[in-house]
Amino acid sequence: MDGAHDLGGQQGFGPIEVDSVSEPFNEEWEGREWGMAQCALTPDITIDWWRHCRELILPEDYLTRPYLDSWAQTDFATYIEAGWISLEEVDHRGSLIEVDEPLDPPSTASVDDILKDERNHAVRYHKEVESKPLFSEGQNIVTNKEGVAGHTRLPRYVRGIKGVINAYHGAHVFPDLSAHGKTTHQHLYSVVFACADLWPETQNSKDKVFLDLWESYLTEA
Amino acid sequence: MTNYDAQEVARIHQELRDRLPQDPASRVGALEKILTEKGLVDPQSIDAWVEAYQDHIGPKRGAHVVARAWNDVGFKRRLMADAPAAIDELGYLGRATGHLKVVENTTTVHNLVVCTLCSCYPFSILGMAPAWYKVAAYRSRAVRDPRGVLEEFGVEISNDIEVRVWDSTAELRYLVLPQRPDGTEHFDEDALANLVTRNSMIGTDRDLEVTAPGED
């Protein structure tokens, strides 16, 4: 999706506020949102569907609201789309009707529980697959020129660009389909691009940009 | 049940514009109230999550990993080969580090990490991402003008150093292993960890300042 979220290389955002206070929650609501996102999500959500719902936030809101505020907006949207809460309840600022399929009542987590359980949240997205990877280290590739209407992890700034396979990561969950609730695995590569091939003003640069890209984003160059 | 209907979500976002309160604190408050009343979330669990990331899980973990790598050749080898397994030795494996990758700064290479598409970050070893990491200015410029970005952070990179920018487009997360400063040969692991800044592990800091143990 060619959305406002696809920020790589866009210009006009000005300097970075490098000293902005950020330790670790600036305001109380940020901590509340962080906590909610960790312990309350629709049960059948995928990380890619959630990301896509965040990308669908209206551009003027996406670009101007604080980061964790956009998480709250995304949580609202995913809950409403899945039928767990209604727009009327948003108006009412509280529950109006029972949900169809109540979740198991959440058990109260303590800090100790969270710290002990943290290791179980190191989600692994890769899997052994039968197909062999098409590309190998050092091979020249070119990225797809066209974008796709839905969720994808091939940013605009590397479309139709020649790069080199830096490493093979194994087969990982393919985000374009995971955003539709379908879990499939596809070969994933670290691909390196020369800055000189990406931007007109960096022709003499020897700097490089590395992205992790799925096989169907690439063809042999 | 999730229907994965993007058009519907676009419509919901539009609807929410006029229906949600106008400031972030009230929006998040409304979400917590509705979810709590529906029994979908327990406010005490949220308290615990805040405390966990305020007091326990943060960049000190990353600094410990870096200090161990500087001090223990075997650990460094394991860290570079399989970072999730290596940080698991220290009890730091967790959220967003299941596919952690460590990239090493050298005299000729400087690494910088960004997520241009969302704001992916290795939570279980660095905690919450700093505000600047998540704003459009950083996300847009890190891949196009990394040297300009670094200058704003007070980091000058000479022309003989290659800058490598890592855009976190998949579930891999990146941790920069900064260079060990000279004059720290006799520092123990704790003293070394004290020298490591959060920004140096993202790549917006390079030459670490040496303070004698106990001085900071």
Computed CA radius of gyration of chain B, to the nearest angstrom: 20 Å
- Relative strand content of chain A: 15-25%
Tell me the number of structural domains of chain B. Answer: 2
Name the beta content range of chain B.
5-15%
Oligomerization category of the chains in this entry: heterodimer
Commentary on this structure:
The complex is a heterodimer of chains A (221) and B (216). The longest helix of chain A has 15 residues, at 67-81. In chain A, helix 1 (28-39) runs parallel beside helix 4 (67-81) and helix 2 packs across helix 4. In chain A, strands 1, 2, 3, 4, 5 and 6 form a 6-stranded antiparallel sheet that branches. Chain A has 221 residues and is α+β, with helices and mostly antiparallel strands. The relative contact order of chain A is 0.14. Helices cover 29% and strands 17% of the residues of chain A. Chain A has 2 domains: 28-121, Cyclin A, domain 1 (Orthogonal Bundle), CATH 1.10.472; 126-220, SH3 type barrels. Chain A starts with 27 loop residues before the first helix and ends with a strand. Chain B is mainly α. Chain B folds into 2 domains: 16-55, no CATH class; 57-202, Nitrile hydratase alpha /Thiocyanate hydrolase gamma (Nitrile Hydratase, Chain A, Alpha-Beta Complex). In chain B, the strands form 2 sheets. Chain B has a two-stranded parallel sheet. In chain B, helix 4 crosses helix 5, helix 4 (59-71) packs across helix 10 and helix 5 (73-81) crosses helix 6. The model of chain B has no long low-confidence stretch (mean pLDDT 96). Chains A and B meet through helix 1, helix 2, helix 4, helix 5 and helix 6 of A and helix 1, helix 2, helix 3, helix 8 and helix 9 of B. Strand 5 (208-214) of chain A pairs parallel with strand 3 (162-167) of chain B.
